[in-house]
């Protein structure tokens, strides 16, 4: 029972941090690891991480089963239900098989398949794929139900991308070194420096080329945000939500360190991390001005060629990277909170720029509330602005908006990357 006890104790602590403090899976895992100090976790970190990831991903489903069968929805009971339903497929040990037999006697009436069969439509999708019901309903208001199912299924997969940092390394050498470290990749057809991860043997952040800043963990959808900006050597670019600096570093990579970036962010800690990362990535930091400020309220006088507003959001489009987002999406107030921040950022950006200067607005969200709806409010507000066509080889926006054909979206089930929204706004 030693291993089972450790799985229960550790994974329930991860759930606690994810649910109570809205932490990412990775942060919750590290907090649990340090706070509990279990030797079994030290010996097999990947084993415990994969279990934690799957339990967090299935949290919504398991929590619903607890309530349906009058089981106290404690974090340990949620882990117990995971062991009952999925444990034998993941942990192929006799101790687990014996424990699951005991759980079957304790929860003899529990039947997930019958619960799924009882409901139809969006409710079935929410339970089967373990997403908050309101989130699935919102997606079904802008997409056909069959496509929503394909989307949810893809969000539950693990989609990983790497960017070769051509300021320090070339693509062919990167592929060779990655293969030597047990990572198989495919070169992307849209970006020659983007690599889709097919197989890997150890955590990507522990790879030597990642630690040296030669290869960067970055989703392809995030790279499209910088392509929408279309940076050129000599451009002066304002990045209003710059930290931790991955997109700023790509701007400098695409311009061979010949652009000028003014980077705003309200977090001193994140800006310090950004400076460290930019130096690691070979960015000419003399061409990046770091400014600690709240971009919703600051006034500036600067001639800039373009502005990037990669705004904070619920991150609903990158569930495949962090399943903890599914747990956080249960709180609908988060959507309202972030959409208001996005609106304030855009209004302030458009207020202080010259007529004709493009503002690229992006979010890693699948919700229209953090994309099309924000844009609709901006262009109908006091600042005169319009949506300009955006040339990206991805999907158009959700239907029902006058500007749907001008904005762009990526979807995991179509583009095999995160779900992002992209829009170009111009003051008129």
Walkthrough of the structure:
The chain folds into three domains: 2-118; 161-217, 2-Layer Sandwich (Alpha-Beta Plaits); 220-427, Vaccinia Virus protein VP39 (Rossmann fold), CATH 3.40.50.150. Helix content is 48%, strand content 14%. It contains 20 helices and 13 strands. It has helices at 2-21, 25-36, 39-43, 45-57, 59-68, 75-90, 94-106, 112-118, 121-129, 133-140, 145-155, 171-180, 208-211, 220-229, 246-254, 268-280, 324-328, 333-351, 372-379, 412-415, and strands at residues 161-164, 184-187, 194-199, 215-217, 236-239, 260-265, 288-292, 306-310, 358-363, 385-388, 395-396, 408-409, 421-427. The strands form two sheets. Strands 5, 6, 7, 8, 9, 10, 11, 12 and 13 form a nine-stranded mixed sheet that branches. Strands 2-3-1-4 form a four-stranded antiparallel sheet. Helix 1 packs across helix 6 (75-90), helix 9 packs parallel to helix 11 and helix 18 crosses helix 19 (372-379).
């Amino acid at each position: 029972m030693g291993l089972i006890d450790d799985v229960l104790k550790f994974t329930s602590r991860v759930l606690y941090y994810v649910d109570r403090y809205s932490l990412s899976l990775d942060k919750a895992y590290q907090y649990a690891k340090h706070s509990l100090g279990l030797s079994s976790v030290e010996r097999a970190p990947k084993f415990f991480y994969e279990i934690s990831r799957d339990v967090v991903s299935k949290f919504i489903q398991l929590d619903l089963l607890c309530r349906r069968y009058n089981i106290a929805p404690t974090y340990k009971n949620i882990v117990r239900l995971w062991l009952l339903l999925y444990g034998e497929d993941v942990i192929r040990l006799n101790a687990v098989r014996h424990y699951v037999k005991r759980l079957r006697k304790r929860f003899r009436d529990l039947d997930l398949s019958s619960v799924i069969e009882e409901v139809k439509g969006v409710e079935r999708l929410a339970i089967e794929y373990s997403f908050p019901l309101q989130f699935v309903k919102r997606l079904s208001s802008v997409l056909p139900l069959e496509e929503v199912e394909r989307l949810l299924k893809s969000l539950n997969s693990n989609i990983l991308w790497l960017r070769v940092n051509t300021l320090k390394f070339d693509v062919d050498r990167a592929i060779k070194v990655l293969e030597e470290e047990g990572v198989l990749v495919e070169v992307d057809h849209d970006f020659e420096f983007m690599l889709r991860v097919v197989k890997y043997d150890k955590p990507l952040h522990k790879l030597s080329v990642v630690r040296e800043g030669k290869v960067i963990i970055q989703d392809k959808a995030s790279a499209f945000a910088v392509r929408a900006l279309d940076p050129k050597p000599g451009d002066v670019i304002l990045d209003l939500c710059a930290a931790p600096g991955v997109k700023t570093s790509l701007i400098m990579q695409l311009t061979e360190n010949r652009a000028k970036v003014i980077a705003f962010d309200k977090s001193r800690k994140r800006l310090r991390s950004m400076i460290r990362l930019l130096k690691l990535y070979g960015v000419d930091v003399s061409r990046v001005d770091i400014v600690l400020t709240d971009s919703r309220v600051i006034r500036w006088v600067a001639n800039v060629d373009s502005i990037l507003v990669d705004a904070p959001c619920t991150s609903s489009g990158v569930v495949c990277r962090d399943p903890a987002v599914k747990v956080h999406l249960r709180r609908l107030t988060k959507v309202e909170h972030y959409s208001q921040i996005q609106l304030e950022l855009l209004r302030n950006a458009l207020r202080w720029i010259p007529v004709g200067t493009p503002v690229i607005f992006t979010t890693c969200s699948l919700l229209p509330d953090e994309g099309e709806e924000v844009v609709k409010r901006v262009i109908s507000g006091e600042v005169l602005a319009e949506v300009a066509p955006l040339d990206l080889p991805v999907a158009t926006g959700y239907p029902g908006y006058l500007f749907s054909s001008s904005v762009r979206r990526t979807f995991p089930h179509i583009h095999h990357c995160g779900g992002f929204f992209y829009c170009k706004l111009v003051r008129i």
